[in-house]
């Protein structure tokens, strides 16, 4: 972290920017900017992980809104555990943390010091989240959907047939292999449906089809996602919002990190089915494919995504800052 910060500072001494927007996974870049007196903002892909005073804490398996006193107690305990763990990690690595410009993990106002105190660009929709009270720096600007261009051959879509996409963009290769095995076994149970399973790897070899099951190297969401009737995904922010933007129902199978929290939010919003075990996939597929239309939450969130105009909103915030030196509300 310290080496990255030093390298950035060296570059910025040659040509100093007016503003640095830092991904939330690279706080050392923001701290380096802060040391040089450069304004810096945080770009937050998953707003659910922001430390708030209300709403379910993240990273506890997908907690949902409180409905009982016992749940309220557990949420309070989970929030304290999270803060205690972060303080403990800072204590263990305090020398390295201080070298990066991080003397403490929390500021005096209890906000997280790894995030910008000026502006946190929350790349989501506020109504999708379960918290109501956010740090003052948070600005919801909507998701930034982007599919890198590729030369991969387009999937083959059969006219008159429904298609289901399974995509698990994960570092856990064993999960992809298990999903492949499960889909190969259950595809014959749905003879009128075409199944596509994406490796998410443009360099992966194209494999021969097995009946109505196709394992594909890569599927370009921007070009082809809207042609599917249903998507099975892991709950990553990118595919989650891509499905909502396309108005597609989904079965979400979270695997790690914030994916369980995304699954909880999709379930609360009435926008997806939460698959907790792969053995339950056939039953959920039957339920989803037999539905007359997408869950009501899908259409509501799709309309909100269209209204938020995420790219224009970011330009508006940056332009307002350039004119006044202050972060405007949105």
Automatic annotation (TrEMBL):
Keywords: Transferase. GO terms for molecular function: hexosyltransferase activity. It holds the Pfam family Glyco_tran_28_C. Residues 211-296 form the Glycosyl transferase family 28 C-terminal domain. It comes from the Bacteria. InterPro entries: Glyco_trans_28_C, Glycosyltransferase_28. The keyword Ligase does not apply. PANTHER family: STEROL 3-BETA-GLUCOSYLTRANSFERASE, STEROL 3-BETA-GLUCOSYLTRANSFERASE UGT80A2. This is Glycosyltransferase. It comes from Xanthomonas oryzae pv. oryzae (strain PXO99A). The lineage of its organism: Bacteria, Pseudomonadati, Pseudomonadota, Gammaproteobacteria, Lysobacterales.
């Amino acid at each position: 972290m310290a080496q990255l910060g030093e390298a950035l500072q060296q570059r910025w001494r040659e040509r100093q920017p007016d503003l640095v927007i830092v991904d939330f996974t690279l706080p050392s870049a923001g701290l380096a900017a802060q040391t040089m007196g450069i304004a810096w903002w945080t770009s937050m892909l998953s707003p659910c992980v922001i430390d708030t005073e209300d709403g379910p804490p993240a990273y506890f398996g997908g907690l949902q809104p409180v409905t009982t006193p016992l749940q309220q107690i557990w949420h309070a305990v989970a929030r304290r555990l999270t803060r205690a763990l972060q303080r403990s990690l800072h204590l263990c690595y305090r020398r390295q943390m201080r070298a990066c410009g991080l003397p403490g993990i929390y500021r005096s106002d209890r906000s997280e010091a790894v995030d910008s105190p000026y502006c946190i660009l929350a790349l989501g929709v506020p109504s999708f989240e379960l918290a109501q009270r956010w740090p003052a720096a948070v600005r919801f600007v909507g998701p930034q959907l982007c599919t890198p261009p590729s030369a991969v051959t387009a999937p083959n879509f059969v006219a008159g047939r429904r298609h289901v996409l399974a995509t698990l963009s994960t570092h856990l290769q064993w999960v992809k292999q298990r999903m492949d095995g499960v889909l190969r076994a259950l595809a014959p149970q749905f003879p009128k449906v075409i199944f596509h399973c994406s490796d998410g790897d443009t360099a992966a070899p194209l494999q021969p089809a097995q009946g109505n099951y196709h394992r594909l190297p890569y599927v370009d969401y921007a070009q082809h996602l809207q042609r599917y009737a249903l998507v099975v995904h892991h709950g990553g922010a990118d595919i989650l919002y891509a499905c909502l933007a396309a108005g597609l129902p989904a079965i979400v199978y979270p695997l790690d990190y914030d994916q369980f929290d995304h699954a909880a939010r999709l379930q609360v919003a009435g926008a997806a089915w939460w698959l907790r075990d792969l053995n339950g996939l056939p039953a959920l597929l039957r339920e989803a494919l037999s539905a007359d239309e997408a869950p009501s939450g899908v259409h509501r969130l799709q309309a909100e995504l269209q209204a938020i105009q995420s790219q224009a909103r970011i330009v508006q915030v940056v332009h307002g800052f350039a004119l006044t030196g202050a972060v405007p509300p949105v």
